[in-house]
Structures are given as structure tokens and as C-alpha cells.
Amino acid sequence: MSSQPVYVPKGEWLGHPKGLYLLFATEMWERFSYYGMRALLVLCLTAATTAANPGFGWTDGDALKLYAWYTGLTYFTPVLGGWLADNYMGQRLAVIIGGIVMAAGQFTLAASFGSKSTEIFMIGLVLLIVGNGFFKANISTMVGELYPKGDIRRDGAFTIFYMGINLGAAIAPLVCSTLGEDPAWGWKFGYLSAGIGMLLSVVVQLVFSNRYLGDLGKKPGAKRSLAMTGGVNAPLTSDERDRLKVIVVLFVFVVAFWAAFEQAGGLMNIWAEKSTNRMIGTFEVPAGWFQSLNPVYIVLLAPLFASFWLRLGRRGNNPPAPKKMIFGLLLTAVGFVCMVAAVYQAHASPDGKAGMTWLALAYLFHTMGELCISPVGLSLMTKLAPLRFASLIMGVWFLINFAANVIAGYVGSYADKLGELAIFGGITGVLVAFALLLWAISGKLVDWMHGAENIIERNPRQNESDPAIT
After folding, report:
1. Which of 3, 279, 219 is nearest to 92 (CA)?
2. Euclidean distance between CA atoms 195 and 180, whole angstroms
3. Is 66 part of a structural domain of the chain?
4. Does residue 197 contact residue 91 with C-beta atoms inside 8 Å?
């Protein structure tokens, strides 16, 4: 993706533009908000209405289906938000609007527990879905626009950005679940804390964006693209059409990954609550705390992966994105092998529960798989997308999660009928099959990319003195 020059303030920190770390902080607090409420969603829906910490009394199956549609739709609306940003408002304004609407959504969820109103709870979820549409694709697009075409740092930048996502996700359950699952506080305070996190995201962006981002994200991409072509809407080139084919094909494989991975907030969350021995001495670990394992692993491992990709890139040995994704699918499959082992241990145990080690190992392998797919995919979208469709294409990338989350919820809901062993074992087989298929066609996908991942040596002058990112 190339772009018309945009003013970005000079200066770097740890080898990257300072604006990256502002976007890191903005996304960190937004993800705190999202993952904080996600850790509570299924648990508060399934909690009995007469419990010490009363919930809505739904069945596991019904709660997982709502979880599927909620998480799915939060990844559908970025397509619309990306289109609006590309054509009318620019990414910066879209991010601010999205953050304000999501904060309102979290506070609405908290308010629903005053009257135990399902209707108010649903309004809160709708606000979160709409707000996420404005926010999600556009902040990721701004990360890509910090770097010139062919900059070797871009994959590493998205891995660092991904650390921000997961730092927020790691902290969120420790705060929101600790409050929300505790009858002394209740679900209401879990959602209130998530709303405060979202407000912090908005404040960070409002206070520091002009200083560290300059004009980045202010002008819609479609208008910038039109200016570059002298006001003529040029058709897509053959290379651009081939690159869009790559996005469509990868869509299928990444859906398989996320449909498996998103069992974390649904079926694996329920497994942690009902089928895992969570006792450490006399202390019972809250089920929601296991939601922090994946982001903690990300924060620990992301620097290693970022450094690894950078070293390979400097040597000219960095594998293309489709091949990285093959490793991601296989590593995620290994994680579900651990869940199969957990089921066997639970069946053999007198109390019907497995040890916490299996969940810890499963999340570890899922995290390594995620690092080979998600930040790599985010970076790839900024390389493949034409400027005029930059945020829209990023929205399409998140549309993958819409399909995957809906599938994940429905797959998880069949555990009542088929059993966890069939679900976890079946997911393992599907992931291995998709990895083999992607390996078979990866060469063709790389051809269609037409060198989008080729490295161009950095211009040292651009580090400090050149304010234009092109």
C-alpha cells in the first residue's frame, strides 16, 4: 500500500515511530474494555438468578449462541466503519467516535444489573458492536501507514502493536473478573471497570494524537488516492486484483483458525469453570482469570517473534505470510491436543475435573499459533490493500472474525450433545487438514502477491528529518 505523503512528526523510540506507541496505548485500553466484558459475558448470562451473584439464568447453549453472535458482529461492523473512514471521516475521527460509543455500551451493560433487564443488556451489546465498527479497522490501518512501502520494520511493528492489544487483554480479566465474579461487588462493577478502560483509550488518543501522529489518519484514504491520480478514478491494476484474490483465499484458512481459537471465551471458559480443578491451597482461582493466560503469553513471546521475523528479514529468509500461517494452524492444533488430554484426565478423575496445567499448555500453543497468523495478517493487509480501500480491506480482514466467532459459538454449543472430547478432537483434525491444504497452494498465493512483501532498504534520512511517510 502506497500513499500520498502525510506529515508525521519526526523522531523514533526503540527503532519505531513514536506514533506506534501512542496507537499501542490507545488499543491497549480498548482491548482492556473488550476482553474485560468478554470474560464476564457467558458467566453472567449462565449465572442463576437466585445465586449469591445473580445473573440471567440462561442455559450454556443459549449463552454460547449469544456470545457467538455478539463477538461475530463486533468483527462485521468494521467493514462499514472502514468504508466510512476511507470515504468520509478519516481514521482518526472514526476511532474517537467508536471509543465514545463503546464506553457508553459498557456503562449500559452495568446499568442493566440494577433492574436485571435483558433489554437494557442487549442495548449495551449493540452499542459495543457499533462502536467497535468505527474503531477496530481504522486504528490498525494507521499502524501500517506509519511505515513506507517495503519497510522491513512493518511486521515487527504489528507484533509490537499486538503486544498492546494483549497487555490490555491480560490485565482486563484480573480487574473485571475479580470484581464481576465476586458477589461482594457483582457483575455491574466488572462492566463499570471495562467502561472506565474504554474512556482512558479515548483520552489517550485525544490528548496525544496531534503530537505523535501529526496529520496521519485525518484525511480519508479515497480522497488522498484521488489526489494522487489527478482526480481520475483509475481502475484496479492486474497486480491489485491478484492481491485481492490472496485476501479472499486466506479468508477461508484464517476463519478456521479463529473458529478454533475463539473457543477460549466460550467452551474453554466453561471448561475452566466446571471441569478444571482451580484450587491452589485454599484459594480457588476465578474461571475468568484463565482468559489472561493468552495475552500474558503474547506479551512475553511477541518481542521474541518480532525479533525473529526481523532477523530473518535482514538475512532474506523471512517466510512469506501464507507459510507463517501454516505453522500457526499446526501450533493451534497442538493446543487442542492438550484439551483432548484434559478431557481424558477429567474422565479418569474421581471429581471429574482436570488439572490447570492442560489449560495453561493449550493457551501457550494457541498463543504461538496466533503470533504466526494474526499480527502477520494485519501487516499483510496493509501491504496488499490499494490506498483507496485501506480501511475497508482491514475491515474485511476482521470480517473473518465475524464468520469465525459465529461458527465457534455454534461448535461449542454442541458439546452438550457430542461431548468435549468430540469437539476438541474434531477441531484438531480440521486444523491439521487446513494446514496441509494451505501448504499445497501457498506457492500460488505468493505469486499472486507480486512482491508485496519485498523489502526496500530504509532511507536513514527518513528516520529523523523527513516528515513525510510515503
Report:
1. 219
2. 13
3. yes
4. no
pTM, two decimals, is 0.73
pLDDT digits (tens, 9 = 90+) for 99-138: 999 999 999 999 999 888 899 999 999 999 999 999 988 8
| DSSP-derived pairing of the beta strands 16-17 and 12-13 | antiparallel
| Total number of domains constituting the chain | 1
List % helix, strand, coil for the chain (3-state, nearest 5). Answer: 75, 5, 20
Q: Is 68 exposed, middle or buried (0-12, 13-18, 19+ CB in 10 A)?
A: buried
Residue 374 belongs to a domain: yes
Strands 6-7 and 468-469: antiparallel
- Rounded alpha-carbon distances, angstroms, from residue 133 to 71, 83, 128, 426: 12, 10, 9, 32
Neighbours of 94 (CB within 10 A): 28
Higher pLDDT, 430 or 228: 430
Report, as an integer, the average pLDDT of 354-372. Answer: 95
Name the most confidently modeled range: 206-220, 378-392, 450-464: 206-220
CB-based contact 94:138 (threshold 8 Å): yes
On whether residue 213 sits in a domain, the answer given is yes
Residue 2 lies in a domain: no
Task: Give the torsion through C-alpha atoms of 349, 361, 65, 437, to 10 deg.
Answer: -120
Its sign, for the CA torsion 263, 264, 266, 270, is positive
Q: Cα–Cα distance between 295 and 152 in angstroms, integer?
A: 25
> What amino acid is encoded at 133 in this protein?
G
Domain boundaries, position 310: 16-449
CA atoms within 13 A on the CB side of 126: 6
Helix axes 420-448 and 321-348, enclosed angle (nearest 10): 170
Residue 419: predicted pLDDT: 86
How many CA atoms within 13 Å lie on the side-chain side of 96? 13
Residue 329 near residue 256, CB atoms below 8 Å: yes
CATH no. for residue 185? 1.20.1250.20
Is residue 10 classed as helix, strand or coil in its secondary structure?
A: coil
Q: Rounded to 5 degrees, what are φ and ψ at 285?
A: -65, 125
- The phi and psi torsions of 327 (rounded to 5 degrees) equal -60, -35
